[in-house]
Design a protein that fits this description.
581 residues; alpha+beta; 14-stranded mixed beta sheet; two-stranded antiparallel sheet; flat; TPR repeat; procollagen-proline 4-dioxygenase activity; metal-binding; oxidoreductase; vitamin c
């Protein structure tokens, strides 16, 4: 029986100013249920094994007892049966006890296990889930430039559990890519399967099958000399292979033709170097900023200069003297200067996060995007996550979070979309996109997404950054914090610089909460005071001291309150302090 290693899964809760039941692999939150389901099935399997062992022990005991008895009875049957008790017990055994043994043998202890399997099977992932999880690993491989061996040996940053891929796992990965005509990844994973085979690792799949897929995929990548060398290895292993001979002749004829066209008589032998990441160029796809986007996800190309850093500050934010924030203002830190992006510390408590996740988890459905041509909501490969929508009336926690967002931003959530909770699955991502609508017909009906307030509800061990390819910013998840930016200019036009993406989660579970502000009519303008956030007209934070490379250091709450009273009376001069990276 083939053994399949369950693929590690990885997840953010988003709150954007604006479900469908879908694949299991798109949400770590729902995949965690499968962990407990599998544990229950393992226990059921152990109980079945124990029942089978008990049954077998009973049958074995019968066999041993009867073996001794028949050895004595067959030595001299007449003498044995001359004893009336032996004659009686023979009648009893054949009439009653052998029937009981027959019933014991016919008992099927597997009924309970099969019944348990049947109940849980409806929640099992299907073939699309397995394929989606495999493609997610390939997406992580591309984004973070990880070779197949890193995945195979579990060499990932931030990992807490050892997880390896066997020869057969690597073969299945390669076959998934091959069936999608993705020969680039088929080569990488078939080569890894071959490498582990050559190292002596146990396997079920044959080397001939691996070489068959690998040689043809290499040919599709345009490397004829190596395709010929691999096909010759295949022929040497299995001379009767139905395709190998024909492929070899075809490859050799094609190579001869190419050499003739290039006026070359002899082709240099195929390189002995193994195929690895970078041997072949990855094909281009539909996303023009793919390299910039993935580079930012890896922390490359971030345009944080010394001049820009000097314009970033930390401060206490009281929401333009909002009564609910006067005594306990928010700690606000600049993440970027233009467009202005800020992060709020302690925006959500641990108990609030757990409650929100509890409310959202049963409702998680595959996240959708609006088709730019039809305007219809649909699923897309460039958004791999599940989301749920929560209303303030459902729980006091949701109402409290909505009120806090209003207090911090000075915007109303009355014209906002519901609180959107997002949970990312294996390789979960949302490729570069705009939060604001560019369809005039939608804006006329619903208004537009004025701003985005994004709560991070989990830490992520590796990956999962929010990146802005246009100006080279990368913002990393930090549990309990929130980031905020405006999607529109004062004129109402969209700020195209805010095109952003959620990088794939390499290791960890990313939950996010997204709230977006609508501006459906002229009345909404009265709810907006951009100066409240951009004009920095509120209390700045002060620092006792700085540590280079350390986060902002804030004054004690008591001292901060005293400073605020002094500031309002005009007796204390406020000076802005820079945020240290």
């Amino acid at each position: 029986m083939r053994k399949h290693l369950s693929l590690p899964a990885l997840a953010l809760v988003c709150c954007c100013f604006w479900g469908i039941q879908a694949e299991v692999y798109t949400s770590i939150g729902q995949m965690t249920d499968l962990i407990y389901t599998e544990k229950e099935l393992v226990q059921s399997l152990k109980e079945y094994i124990q029942a089978e062992e008990s049954k077998l022990a009973a049958v074995k005991s019968w066999a041993n007892k009867l073996d001794v008895l028949t050895l004595a009875s067959t030595s001299d049957p007449e003498v044995y049966l001359a004893h009336p008790v032996n004659a009686y017990k023979l009648m009893k055994r054949l009439n009653t006890e052998w029937s009981e043994l027959e019933s014991l043998v016919l008992q099927d202890p597997s009924d309970g296990f099969i019944s348990n399997m049947t109940v849980h099977r409806q929640y099992f992932p299907d073939e699309e889930d397995e394929k989606g999880a495999a493609k997610a690993l390939m997406r992580l491989q591309d984004t973070y430039k990880l070779d197949s061996e890193s995945f195979s040996k579990g060499k990932l940053p931030g990992v807490h559990h050892n997880a390896i891929l066997t020869v057969d796992d690597c073969y299945d990965m390669g076959k998934t890519a091959y069936n999608e005509a993705d020969y680039y990844h088929a080569v990488l994973w078939m080569q890894q399967a071959l490498r582990q085979m050559d190292a002596g690792e146990e396997h079920v799949v044959s080397k001939a099958d691996v070489l068959d897929y690998l040689s043809y995929s290499v040919y599709q990548m345009g490397d004829l000399p190596r395709a010929i060398e691999l096909t010759r290895r295949l022929v040497a292993i299995d001379s009767s292979h139905q395709r190998a001979g024909g492929n070899l002749r075809y490859f050799e004829k094609l190579l001869s033709k190419q050499l003739k066209e290039l006026n070359q008589e002899v082709q240099e032998p195929a390189t002995e170097e193994p195929i690895q990441l970078g041997t072949y160029k990855r094909p281009k796809d539909y996303l023009p900023e793919r390299e910039i986007y993935e580079g930012l996800c890896r922390g490359e190309g971030v345009k944080m200069t010394s001049a820009r850093r000097s314009r970033l500050y930390c401060r206490y934010h009281d929401g333009n003297r909002n009564p609910r924030l006067l005594l306990q203002p928010m700690k606000e830190e600049d993440e970027w200067d233009s467009p202005h992006i800020v992060r709020y510390l302690n925006a959500l408590s641990d108990s609030e996060i757990e409650k929100i996740k509890e409310l959202a988890k049963p409702r998680l459905a595959r996240a959708t995007v609006r088709d730019p041509k039809t305007g219809i909501l649909t699923t897309a490969n460039y958004r791999v996550s599940k989301s749920a929508w929560l209303e303030g009336e459902e729980d006091p926690v949701i109402e409290r979070v909505n009120q806090r967002i209003e207090d911090i931003t000075g915007l109303t959530t009355q014209t906002a979309e519901l609180l959107q909770i997002a949970n990312y699955g294996v390789g979960g991502q949302y490729e570069p996109h705009f939060d604001f609508s560019r369809r005039p017909q939608d804006i006329m009906v619903d208004g537009n997404r004025l701003a985005t307030f994004l709560n991070y509800m989990s830490d992520v061990e590796a990956g999962g950054a929010t990146v802005f390819p246009d100006f080279g910013a990368a913002i990393y998840p930090k549990k309990g914090t929130a980031v905020f930016w405006y999607n529109l200019f004062r004129s109402g036009e969209g700020d195209y610089r805010t095109r952003h993406a959620a990088c794939p989660v390499l290791v960890g579970c990313k939950w996010g909460e997204l709230d977006g502000e609508f501006n459906p009519n002229s009345q909404a303008a009265s709810n907006l005071n951009i100066n409240q956030l951009i004009g920095v007209s509120h209390l700045m934070c002060f620092f006792d001291y700085f540590l280079v490379g350390a986060p902002c250091m804030y004054l004690s709450h008591k001292l901060q309150s005293n400073l605020h009273r002094n500031v309002t009376s005009g007796s204390f001069h406020i000076k802005k302090y820079k945020k240290e990276d």
